[in-house]
Design brief:
Blueprint: E1 2-8, E2 11-20, H1 22-37, E3 42-53, H2 55-70, E4 74-78, H3 82-90, E5 98-100, H4 103-109
Parallel strand pairs: 2-3, 3-4, 4-5
Antiparallel strand pairs: 1-2
Helix pairs in contact: 1-2
Length: about 110
């Protein structure tokens, strides 16, 4: 998995590329912790190029959402394909993390 981090105004955009399996969730967690340490409060995760997400990836997203909330921030996701959207709905993550159709709409809402 590749992880690219950009800043757009006050929003930190995390662009994921590839499969989010057990090993990659560790890398993603480390990237998130670095972002938090740098003081990010508003984080948008772009799933446009994500082809798979496993339970470890879901757990990492929930952990990051909780850490951001404790810091007074929030986590959002965008560009989620139908397969991952179905997984988010089954696990009820869509009720915890706001999901946006695309990055432009997500950035407007932050």
């Amino acid at each position: 998995m590749k992880i690219l981090v950009n800043r757009v105004d006050e929003v930190t955009v995390v662009i994921l590329d590839g499969e989010l399996n057990v090993d990659d969730s560790i890398v993603m967690r480390e990237a998130f912790l670095k972002i938090l340490k740098e003081g990010a409060k508003e984080v948008m995760v772009d799933f446009e190029k994500v082809t798979f997400i496993g339970s470890a990836g879901l757990a990492t997203l929930i952990e990051m959402m909780q850490l951001l909330r404790k810091a007074g921030g929030r986590l959002g996701c965008c560009n989620i394909n139908n397969s991952i959207r179905g997984l988010f709905e089954i696990t009820k993550i869509h009720k915890l993390i706001t999901i946006y159709e695309n990055r432009a709409l997500a950035l407007k809402s932050f």
